[in-house]
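[agent] plan:
  1. take the single chain provided in the ticket
  2. run structure prediction with default settings
  3. attach structure tokens to the ticket
  4. add a short note for the reviewer (M.T.)
[agent] executing step 1
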Amino acid sequence: MGLTLSNNSKIKFIKPPHKIKTMKNITLLFCFLLCIACKKEQSKQIVTTKVKRTVKTTEGTISLSLDGKTYIYDNIDWRKSKIINKENVKLSIRQEGFPIVQFMFPDIKKSLADGQEIFEIPDVHRPGFLPITLIFTMTKKDKEVITFRKGQVKVSFNDNHLIVEFTGEGRPMSDSKTIYPIEGTINVNLKK
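[agent] step 2 finished; step 3 output follows
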């Protein structure tokens, strides 16, 4: 580095010319590399993958409106669900994150033999038969169990298929004062 004195007697340091050129070259090289990197980044194609959920509706579906919330069961876990079709039809349908739906219709064939399809709940008009039961178990931490207490149930049944339409109200088993409006449809194949 060179040393120069001025008329104010201050010392100024002046960079030698070869170091200035080196700094300019380094700066230009850095900018050039940065431009190349940006162009390569722009030319990359973005590849996105969408996961498509497989919906198994051939074995059955359920739609349920319970206390203002609507649940569409279109991905039922059939390994955890149960269907019993003998003298009594019993269903226990499960889908992750949804209420467990349990439906029991004792002596279904005898009850439907006279052509009746619509049943009032509570079903006191079916003397000699066990009651039709529709229960919803909420899958929250508290495991609230809601029973369909009052309303209509329309049933269409053959050995292979069951359709149940219901509308009415239910109550939690632990609270006799709270009433939930409930409606929905169960549509399941009984043959596996």
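[agent] step 4 note for reviewer: The longest helix spans residues 17-43.
[agent] ticket updated
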